[in-house]
Write a structure and sequence with these properties.
Strand content: 25-35%
Distance between the termini: 21 Å
Oligomer: single chain
Shape: globular
Number of helices: 3
Radius of gyration: 20 Å
């Protein structure tokens, strides 16, 4: 959506009467924080010695990568239908939550305490996740949720996040990969150094998949950067054009 706004803005500016550009302007020397290489160094630690995942993280181009999932016949038919319709019914295109593990190309901020990790997402609906690390289990009377219910624990220096309790309304990618309310997501987060955050994600859904599916995603640290306010409902000016074929 930001790309569309940028294109429209540039088109409007080009239509204005052309003027002689000012002379002797200083050259820009700073790069976009999205273009800067990740910092080097050792991964920071929490007071208890566990890795500290705190920071603002850039998902890069890997945000859309999920790989080939083996689907049950009904799910495969639905997936083909959504792709043939050019994803016109994508819930995220209507500013509904992206779900888990789908993310946008916008930065994410991790805030970590010994008992809780919070993930703040700049994109989509400016949503958040809470990863509870206080030993609790999943609620037994859990209602279906857009983002599911997440609990976490340490396996050495790996943070293992277990998420269940989803509704079946979200898509797993932008092409319409479906899932059921039986989706179970396991994420294994590691921080090998200062500038990188890696996660291995396993999706298990016996209703929609023929077997569990695992893929990997990587983030790079954006130093001296904060997530910004982005209101999907305000900027979603092109939703009415999502009409498919």
């Amino acid at each position: 959506m930001r790309t569309l706004l940028l294109i429209l803005t540039c088109a409007a500016v080009w239509a204005w009467p052309q003027q002689t550009p000012p002379q002797n302007l200083p050259k820009a020397t700073s790069k976009s924080p999205f273009d800067q290489p990740p910092p080097s160094g050792s991964a920071p630690k929490m007071p208890d010695g566990k890795p500290d995942f705190s920071g603002v993280w850039n998902p890069g181009l890997g945000f859309a990568t999920i790989g080939q999932v083996s689907l049950q016949p009904w799910a495969d038919a639905l997936y083909k239908e959504r792709r043939a319709n050019l994803s016109k019914d994508d819930p995220e295109g209507r500013c509904l939550p992206a779900g888990v593990p789908r993310i946008s190309p916008f930065p994410q901020k991790f805030v970590q305490t010994p008992a809780l990790v919070v993930i703040l997402d700049e994109g989509n609906t400016h949503s958040y996740r809470q990863l509870f690390m206080d030993g609790r289990g999943h609620p037994k009377d859990l209602e279906p949720l857009w983002m599911g219910d997440s609990i976490a624990n340490w396996d050495g220096d790996t943070l293992v996040v277990d998420t269940v309790g989803f509704n079946d309304k979200t898509w797993l990618n932008g092409q319409g990969l479906p899932h059921s309310d039986q989706l179970h997501v396991i994420e294994r987060y590691t921080r090998p150094d200062l500038g990188h955050l890696n996660v291995e994600i396993t999706l298990d859904d016996p209703k929609a998949f023929t077997q569990p599916h695992t893929f990997k995603r990587g983030f790079t640290l954006m130093q001296n950067w904060e997530i910004h306010e982005y209101v999907c409902n305000e900027f979603n000016v092109d939703a009415e054009h999502l009409v498919g074929k």
